[in-house]
Amino acid sequence: MYKNIVILTGAGISAESGIATFRDSGGLWSNYKVEDVATPEGFARNPGLVHSFYNHRRGELAKVFPNAAHTALADLEKRRGGGVTVVTQNVDNLHERAGTVNLIHMHGELTKMRCGKCRDVIVTEEEFSTESVCLKCGGVGSMRPHIVWFGETPMKMDEIGNLLEKCNLFISIGTSGAVYPAAGLVRIAKASGAHTVELNLERSQGASLFAEKIYGKATEVVPEYTGKL
Ligand code: BJW
Predict the structure, then answer these.
(1) 201 and 185 Cβ atoms separated by less than 8 Å
(2) Candidates 180, 185, 210, 222: which one to mutate for ligand 1, based on the most atoms within 8 Å of Cβ?
(3) Smallest Cα–Cα separation from 91: which of 227, 182, 188?
(4) How far apart are CA 34 and CA 15, in angstroms?
(5) For ligand 1, atom 23: residue with the closest CA
(6) How far apart are CA 219 and CA 225, in angstroms?
């Protein structure tokens, strides 16, 4: 019986809900240049483009629903009554809409914006532009997506490190293992003595680091695996 379970999720868990992944063929990075829409430098160069990229994705998120993999993780947390935390790289809100409560968004959230001047964070479903005004400090054009771009520090890293130190089971779901520090979390879990499992459509870049690997669609392999825990 595993006492403390940490589950890392990536874009693959939301793919069957209809949200595009990043690096699969036809993924977001086939249509947009990472340096234009997912770096602070890109935002400084062309904030209008970055706002329209995230406005569009926020709009798409409102049209989709959690799938059987999100629900299986929420059920696991309820059934175990503690000791299960989902650390997601995803900026969508499908885990919380499925019922997951112990959740860390390490790369930020699509439904939040923050002011680059006063740092105030708001929850929103609205569209933003270079004319948008911060309701707290009145700054014009200072609002930016509450998202971790390349070169920025992921959120709640200390909390994630503490969880991994106590973890007995680390499950990685639907991530290519291409982006650090998320891709390195498995090494910390292993150093803590945790059993490590990869559930993905195909071998990720870090597949060799996992003790157990199961390949298939998230909506099939996740309920099957978590149903046994
Ligand atoms: C399915 C499926 C189905 C599909 N069922 N599976 C050189 C070496 C090492 C590191 C670096 C380096 N140069 C720079 C770095 C650091 C950099 C980095 O990692 N770069 C790499 C590209 C090399 N990282 C950073 O800059 C990070 N910050 C940082 O390092 O700060 C320093 C620091 C470190 C530690 C402590 C403190 C400080 C920040 C990274 C920010 C990432 N941001 C993004 C954008 C978010 C906003 C947005 O959404 O717009 O986050 S990038 C993008 O990639 C997004 C994702 O969260 C992230 C990971 O992608 P993910 O989830 O893995 O998706 P895919 O598409 O890659 O893979 C999907 C997988 O699902 C595939 O395997 C499919 O097979 C599978 N799949 N259908 C099951 N149905």
Answers:
(1) no
(2) 180
(3) 182
(4) 19
(5) 179
(6) 11
Q: Is 77 exposed, middle or buried (0-12, 13-18, 19+ CB in 10 A)?
A: buried
In contact, 54 and 206? CB cutoff 8 Å: no
**Full DSSP string of 132-148:** -B-TTT--BT-EEEEE-
Q: What is the pLDDT of residues 53-80, one digit of tens each?
A: 999 999 999 999 999 999 999 999 999 9
What does the alpha-carbon distance between residue 95 and residue 3 come to, in Å, rounded to a whole number? 21
For residue 56 the two structure tokens come to: 């569009």
Look at the block and give the residue holding tokens 């997506």: 145
Measured from CB, residues less than 6 Å from any atom of ligand 1 are 10-12, 15-16, 21-24, 27, 38, 89, 91, 107, 147-148, 150-154, 157, 174-176, 178-181, 200-202, 204, 217-218
Q: How do strand 212-215 and strand 169-173 relate by DSSP bridges?
A: unpaired
pLDDT in tens, 75-109: 999 999 999 999 999 999 999 999 999 999 999 99
Distance in angstroms (rounded) separating the CA atoms of residues 93 and 96? 6
pTM of structure = 0.97
Catalytic residue among 70, 95, 105, 107: 107
Q: Note if 107 is an active site residue.
A: yes
Listing DSSP states for 181-223 in one string gives TGGGHHHHHHHTT-EEEEEESS--TTGGG-SEEEES-HHHHHH
User: What does residue 28 show for φ and ψ, rounded to 5 degrees?
Assistant: -55, -35
Residue with tokens 């885990």: 95
